[in-house]
Amino acid sequence: MEADRCRGHETRHCVAAARETAVAFINHALMREYFWIAAPVTVLVAAAFWASYQFVEPAPPRTLVMSTGSETGAYHAFGKLYAAQLKKSGVTLRLKTSAGSTENLASVNDAKSGVGVTFVQGGIAQSDKKPGLVSLGRMFMEPLWVFHRLPDPIDRLHQLRGKRIAVGPEGSGTRPLAMSLLALNQIDETSAALTSIGGKDAVLALEKGDIDALFLVMAPESGLVQQLLRNSAVKLMNFAQAEAYTRVLPFLNRITLPLGVIDMVQNIPPSDVAMVAPATALVATENLHPALVGLLVEAAKEIHSVGGLFQRIGDFPKAIDPEFE
Questions:
Q1: What Cα–Cα distance (Å) separates residue 200 from each residue in 82, 205, 225, 312?
Q2: How far is CA 97 from the centre of its chain?
Q3: Residue 114: C-alpha distances to residues 96, 107, 109, 187, 232 (Å)
């Protein structure tokens, strides 16, 4: 029909028809070209979104919960310093008090508790027994103090056999450490009177003579430690076998309380005292957001790199941990 019209000299109609045919052909060609160009791009964009979803971490939470210890203890005091550091980056660190390291470990190991990070005394647990937890490093020394009021000085724990001993409350880090050391010296509930008190209660009982000895894992600046060091009726045990304990229990360190370091005028202590000390770890859940891990590590460097009675400047924090990955 169109051909007849063209032969009939309907030139204008022929030109329009030819133009429409040409435009349709060009549009079809362009659509095919667009498909072959756009399809791979679309696939690449989709793949990029999928990869982002799979491998790129979501934005870090703005709140983190840390289990510490008693409100008067060193863990809680350090927790406040961490909270101040993280606040500078817009992260709120909520502190949750506890009975000590054992309770801290249980909390961070329980997803329902909401605790993401905590302090754990060395020797409390190992990663093979607590999967899903990682260490951000060892942060500071926690000296073990063994005070007694026996008539003569003692330098071996075996000499406490048959005595009344405060080993710390359930949930504290002191108790498992005390029980481990006593067990190495063949002392248990059948060979000594072990009582589950600690802190102020144990110090008061020792000063009153209700117990013969106590175990304390506490900072030397603690008021309770200072009180006992200045009490003439109380003696601090010298660990003659300190080096041996570090070989049997690798999480322990041998430390020395130097002569006169507490009070040079009163010469307290009157001689060097060998002691043992676990190092405290900062333990977190393995799925803690990497950004929060980075902030905690930076805070640890700021807080724990200063020197102290049992450590030199820069000794801590340490990335090596004998118990957790």
A1: 26, 9, 10, 29
A2: 15
A3: 10, 8, 10, 38, 46
pTM (2 d.p.): 0.73
Q: Is 263 helix (H, G, I), strand (E, B) or coil?
A: strand
Are the C-beta atoms of 85 and 299 separated by less than 8 Å?
yes
Determine how many CB atoms are found less than 10 A away from the CB of residue 23: 10
The closest alpha carbon to 140, from 266, 278, 1, 324, belongs to 278
DSSP string, 102-155: HHHHHHHT-GGG---EEEE-TTS--TTTSTTEEEEEEEEE--EEEEE--SS---
The owner of tokens 């949930």 is: 171
Alpha-carbon gap, residue 122 to 245, rounded angstroms: 14
Distance between CA 215 and CA 174 in Å, rounded? 7
Over residues 249-267, the pLDDT tens digits come to 989 999 999 999 999 999 9
Nearest CA to 74 among 150, 139, 168? 139
Angle subtended at Cα 59 by Cα 56 and Cα 60, rounded to the nearest 5 degrees: 115
Separation of alpha carbons 133 and 109, rounded Å: 7
- The DSSP call for residue 305 is S
Q: What is the pLDDT of residues 217-255, one digit of tens each?
A: 988 888 899 999 999 999 999 999 999 999 999 899 999
Phi-psi region for residue 324, left (φ > 0), alpha (ψ -120 to 50) or beta? beta
